[in-house]
Amino acid sequence: MAYVFGAVFPCDPGSPLIGSWRQQIHNLFGTFEYLGGGFRLLLFDRIPSARMVVPLKISGVLVLLGLVLLTIPSLAGYRYAPFKPRH
Fold first, then answer.
1. Which parts pass through the membrane (predicted)?
2. Which of 5, 39, 61, 83 has its CA 20 to 30 A from that of 32?
3. What does pTM read for this prediction?
4. Which of these, 40, 29, 45, 28, lies nearest to 64 by C-alpha position?
């Protein structure tokens, strides 16, 4: 659902934390996506393959860390990098 809402409500130029109402909806569903994905990876320890538990937990921590890093104002330049074709 977050991908659909992210596409229907694209981010403003520069992807600010505080922006238009479309940006706020984009940020809300993006937050749900990061939180849901990160916590789900942390809860994958219930799977039968014990070899995958540690990599999945590390992935979950990295996703949640990514969410936190997205909120730091000094890193705003990394949130949105428009595509620039090479000539």
1. 58-78
2. 83
3. 0.74
4. 40
